[in-house]
Fold this protein.
Amino acid sequence: MSLCLSGMGSFHAGGRWVAITGEALRTARFTQDTEVTFDPNGHYVVEQAYVQWFRPAEVKASRGVLFVHGGGLTGAMWETTPDGRSGWVELFLGQGFPVYVLDGVERGRAGWCALPSVWEGDPIPRSAEWAWELFRLGHKNGFATRQAFAGQRFPIEALDAFVAGFVPRWLSTADAQTTALVAVLDRIGPVDLICHSQGGESAFRAAAARPGLVSRVVAIEPSGFDDGLDPARQTVLGLHGDFFTDTTVRLDLKLRAFAERFAGRGGRTEVWDLVARGESGHSHMPMMDRGNDVLAAEIGAWLLGATRDDGAFDSTSPCPGRT
Amino acid sequence: MSLCLSGMGSFHAGGRWVAITGEALRTARFTQDTEVTFDPNGHYVVEQAYVQWFRPAEVKASRGVLFVHGGGLTGAMWETTPDGRSGWVELFLGQGFPVYVLDGVERGRAGWCALPSVWEGDPIPRSAEWAWELFRLGHKNGFATRQAFAGQRFPIEALDAFVAGFVPRWLSTADAQTTALVAVLDRIGPVDLICHSQGGESAFRAAAARPGLVSRVVAIEPSGFDDGLDPARQTVLGLHGDFFTDTTVRLDLKLRAFAERFAGRGGRTEVWDLVARGESGHSHMPMMDRGNDVLAAEIGAWLLGATRDDGAFDSTSPCPGRT
């Protein structure tokens, strides 16, 4: 690849201050030779999001795309695939989109809250076996031998690298994730969302909260939704893969039901059943599957087509995300 | 800025499989409308590192630089400064260095281990007050009014954004961090290290384990060391800032003592006292301070000068970090 950028950077957005009081001093060994007595009382920032952004020198889209990862994952899921092919970050930059990559609240570089009593419940780690089944890589009993579904596009040979990208998740932070994502939108300005799985909930809810900023939501097998989108101003492209007859988690049916509700309110929506489109074999992670480049091109074309009437784009404005 | 890349990407490296057995099934609400019963038993990858890399189209250095963050921070600390100026990632790319940015074990996109009984102790969060003092931003009693040391180069007005970048840290993962960093080096190949504070320990230990891969360590106020560097093959540039007379944590003296031990074994080493060099006012975070661009240029020139005799560099080789 060869790619010229007019800017790149990152920022944290959202979050709130929490004050801790009444805790005793603690002593611990912080370096090889230094014991430190420290005061756990004080002020902390929690529930912030992190965004990394890249702006191509030659912008071809009327607005950028913001990638919203799924549950138990970080923004890294949109980068290089586990088997070393280009991810959607590079593939959308290559099409001329300014690209923003979110690490939502409690994921990746957003950090997480280790203070007591701020978040409910314990963090949930995801085993490789669970992902194997939930992400529709193969039958449950095929995990031990890595026997995938016939025609599987996910790079099974790189399963270890994929599992290394898993991070813990809380189940009590959905509101905080949405609030921080709205803060991200307010910082970026007009942008379209590409979300995955659990990221659907915060993406749709943030889009519903900012119909003037988010015109399009591309939802890759979302597991959460918001029926408050503005049908006059917002458009939804939903997309789902293969192998749903082998699972009880019917994200395809949930997506279709959501699209029908939105269409019933007059919303413009499309649902791409990749099998029906002749692209069979996609798992729950189409951005990592073989053929992820074809999908990036198809989604990119849809976004470019859908934005044709958006009016002029001021490509000389300061880099978004910069104060 | 304008920057052309011949490649970018990311990978996870290192880590080990952990098997959990004997736990009861759990049920929890995973999405807005779905309760899931899941099996916490199974296989997990823990203690992996994450690396994001960028390769400039025009490489001017004989080897790239790998940034190793400090304690309670992630690789984001080397990106855009809290007040929105270019960080060292951009500033070293602009000088023609291939750049690798580490999220070490239990930080950022490397993820962390939420399994019971794998790591000792609890994660330690860092308060804004503690950072204020430890990072030498101002006197302890100046925090409430944000009254910084006179001549302070750190962008105090962006303290909130800085604190939003803090993440929890364990005190029991130093060995795992070093092991994962060695795995990163084995994946990248020859590279020089730029480390900060707590990152000094894993960086020096990994360099000592791989003298054939790491020729130079640039250590920014390191708090940990390894006296096993190879004086015949490895060079150290240490660097420290201002305001040490106002603190009990004398990283400047520790750095100088380490350099003297290394020189005593015949090692080539330099220590830059930024005050003595006429660059007063630097905090513990010189990569974020005003003047970070001057330091990036000075360190870059030192690395380029130091590498003059390293022989030809094959800039047509495949992107490092790619399998």
Remarks:
- Chain A touches chain B through 79 residues (CB under 8 Å).
- The longest strand of chain A covers residues 3-20.
